Amino acid sequence: MDDSALRVYVRDAGLARIGQVDDYTSLIVVPRYNAVGAYTLEISADSARAGLLVEGNGLIIRTAGGDTVMSGPIRTVDWSRSASDGGSGKLTVGGIDDTSVLAQYTCWPNPTAVIGSQTSAVYKVSAAVAETALRALVNLNAGPGALAARKNPLLTLAADGLRGPTITREVNQFDNLLAVLADIANSSGLGVRVVQVGSGLQFQVYAPVDRTGTARFSFRLGNLTDASYSTTPPTCTRAIVVAGGGTSPRVCNTYDRTDPLFPGLVIEQFVDLTGVDSASVDLTAQMTQAADEALTNGAGQGNLSISPIDLPQLAYGRDYSVGDTVAADVRGDWYTDVCREVTITSTAADATTVKATVGGDSTGGPCATTAVRWRWRSRRTGRRTRSSGRPPGLEAPDVLFDLGDVGVNAGDGAGAGGV
Prior knowledge:
- There is one protein chain.
- This protein is mainly beta.
- The chain has three helices and 25 strands.
- The strands form six sheets. Strands 1, 2, 3, 4, 5, 6, 7, 15, 21, 22, 23, 24 and 25 form a 13-stranded mixed beta sheet that branches.
- Helix 1 (130-141) packs antiparallel against helix 2.
- Residues 361-415 have low confidence and may be disordered.
């Protein structure tokens, strides 16, 4: 197995490590920013380790240097064999990362009350620091503070770092917990994840790093070989927000935001807050936040595809990671956005490679959404490498580059901790 190959360990349902798989033929790992990651591993069915790869167990995946790339439960184990197989076929093992535990829960309007006492239609966050609000949602719906019947005994929370802005919002009854967390985190410039720490799972909030000053790609810098750019018009530049109207007076307001890509275009969109009591003391904050989300989600998009060269001074995993913001210079203008996802491929014969996708959902700068597909051209070997597959149901980014022996932990400029 290549020296850069990812190391794979198997854990049981209690998260205890029970063995190592060092004879897999293919491994694809897809970490995602504020979303559930996934992995797919292929191995000969004749392998002595095949018996460890069963539903209920999980994988811990690390770089050669020991950094944790992903950990999570095994969800599928498929067997296949063709007439040309010399052995007893192959196993294809599919799994998801530990952040998926958050998707198993919903947000109750009153998470401290039993289901028969849910009299409210919303869970309200009032003038709370974003990280504190995120932790409260997890704690009360799945963590140590949840009802006994809902509490996940493996889940703990990292210390509150008081990151992010102060927010006010209402969460609709029984919305998916992970979807709510991702929405708050994305709008607050934060990242959320669950990682294995020792014999437990820890919910963590982290601040991605703005690396636009250092992770910069351009023809002038000599680390960009080609680029293409296209634009998509906005779907909302004027939000019409309506609150109350049921048991309280109706309040209406409009919020305008000129789109920098299409400054003369006006597109109105209705934002329904009629379920909100217009007598609420924080009505203005709720209406403003709802309008801001509609305008941000409906902003015009710039789609940028580039092929950078990985240089000793700038490499994925060491100099930028999932969640970080990077920049690219096209036609004299700098476009910036967030690295949303990477696809790491490790095989028995070849060096480990990475494909990364930047943009797609981000907010902020002059170009609100920038989609970037990366390709790495090896100056050491003079060759280009491609992966042979991807996890089922995952979009394949267009191009790739080598990971080498660099770790891929994201957030706060350091690793996520882990097992």
